[in-house]
Amino acid sequence: MTFNQDTIAAQSTAAGKGAIHIIRLSGSDAIPVCDKIFKAKKSLAETPSRYATFGKIYTDKQLIDEVLVTVFRAPESYTGEDMVEISCHGNQYIAAQILENILQFARIAEPGEFTQRAFINNKLDLTQAEAVGDLLSASTRFAHKIAIDQMDGRLKQKISSILEIITKIRIGLELEIDFPEDYQDSICIEEISLEISRLKTDLEMLVASGRDGVILRDGYRVSLIGSPNVGKSSIFNALLESERAIVTPVPGTTRDYLEEAIALSGFLIIFYDTAGLRDTEDPLEKMGIARSMNIIEKSDLVIYVTDSQQQDSEIDKLQEVVKKKKLLKVINKTDIISSSLINKYLQQEYIPCSTVLKGGLEKLKAAILQEINIRPEEFDIPPLTNTRQIAAARKALEELQRFEDTLKSEGSVEFLAFDLLQVSKALEEITGVITTDDILDKIFSSYCIGK
Ligand SMILES: Nc1nc2c(ncn2[C@@H]2O[C@H](COP(=O)(O)OP(=O)(O)OP(=O)(O)O)[C@@H](O)[C@H]2O)c(=O)[nH]1
Ligand SMILES: [Mg+2]
């Protein structure tokens, strides 16, 4: 990552018409650059930090807009640099005119560059910077909760507290290496062992939280699978409460899969309607079926739908395909199935459903929520939310395990100190103390311009 301290500018609000648009500047020249086009009783150079000033923006003596400008002086700003925020009327022409004039003296910001500067200037650690991006895309109660809690620094604090203990133990060991006479017998192996086993539990919980974090952030994937004509698309539509999929009495109606997300009790659920599985010579249908298989692969939960016309062996076959995935079974069209047959399915733990009578859907939703089995209200610390964080936490756990093994095999103090250093390094990857340009570029380039 190449880091410039030049002054950057961007429109921070989405393009279009609205009540207000905001144009942001950050960098050592942010205030003098804005002063070049801003006219008010007092210049921005004389305006105290965090004060908003009313004034006018002119270009070539032409009044562009009446605006409110807020000045933030380093280091008390989002980026940690001098910043200016211009609030103008929410007209895209006005916002573009103001930005165009500023860009004579500043550079257009890259996507996420304001947040990147906040990270570089230690205003945020990497978990907080990632959470800023997650907060912008959070669309459900719990996706919002974990993003805002992580942005608030609660994950960072937990990692820092683990790091602090690891560092304390490591320094004790290093003193013993460097000054063996002075520090001999000053380290208590039992105490260290106890502390490390506590930290291991903490790290195990953190790694395990990644499953919940990814589901809460990215959604829980549920696919509807079964033979043609059993009513998968009808159930899909009923769950979405919209006529999204085409439903016909002709088997093989759904060819390509459909994907739609809903918010259910605060969770983001992504439903997949798939092509009915059967032996067919139709090349198009074959392709659709191959795609159904791929969807099963990436699902967290598979809902097998039947309408009682299928053989019992079909579910056994599907079970093989689904392998270790969670499976819910639905018997659909209960409005036209005899009660004795429905009872037979109930005994085999099928959820009865009728999209015609709109029955059973609440039960199906409750069963999905039960499978998700996450209680975000009870989280003490926000979970890990992405593969980068999870991989680094896993590495820290492995290194801690290595330390325990060295301790058990009565390895040298040098080895013990080395193992702990590796734990620290892995933990510092989570918070971004140790990181690579590639990782940073990947994270920040996914943000919008102006954030
Ligand atoms: N009686 C009754 N008919 C239903 C019910 N649900 C769906 N159907 C009918 O069953 C037929 C097939 O429905 P779809 O939802 O298209 O079935 P599908 O499983 O998506 O079929 P493919 O896309 O071909 O795999 C349609 O005629 C629906 O109206 C139900 O609960 N009761
Ligand atoms: Mg269908």
What is the averaged pLDDT score?
Answer: 91
Q: Care to count the β-strands? A: 13
Q: Look at the structure and give the CATH class of the largest domain.
A: Alpha Beta
CATH architecture of the largest domain: 3-Layer(aba) Sandwich
Coarse shape: flat
Question: Which class of secondary structure composition applies to the elements?
Answer: alpha/beta
Could you give the order of strands across the largest sheet? 3-4-5-6-2-1-7
The ordered string of helix (H) and strand (E) elements is EEHEEEEHEHHHHHHEHEEHEHEHEHHHH
CATH fold description of the largest domain:
Rossmann fold
Bound molecules: guanosine-5'-triphosphate, magnesium ion
Kindly give the count of domains.
3
**What percentage of residues falls in helices of 4 or more residues?**
40-55%
| End-to-end CA span | 18 Å
The CATH homologous superfamily of the largest domain is termed: P-loop containing nucleotide triphosphate hydrolases
Strand share of the residues?
15-25%
Which structural traits does this protein have?
single chain; about 450 residues; Gyrase A, domain 2; Four Helix Bundle (Hemerythrin (Met), subunit A); Rossmann fold; 3 domains; about 15% strand; binds guanosine-5'-triphosphate
What's the helix and strand layout?
Layout: E1 8-11, E2 20-26, H1 30-35, E3 38-39, E4 51-59, E5 62-72, E6 83-89, H2 92-102, E7 107-108, H3 113-120, H4 126-137, H5 141-151, H6 154-178, H7 180-183, H8 189-218, E8 220-226, H9 232-240, E9 258-264, E10 267-273, H10 283-298, E11 301-306, H11 312-322, E12 326-331, H12 339-347, E13 351-352, H13 361-372, H14 387-408, H15 413-431, H16 437-445
Parallel strand pairs: 1-7, 8-10, 8-11, 11-12, 12-13
Antiparallel strand pairs: 1-2, 2-6, 3-4, 4-5, 5-6, 9-10
Helix pairs in contact: 4-5, 5-8, 6-8, 6-15, 8-14, 14-15
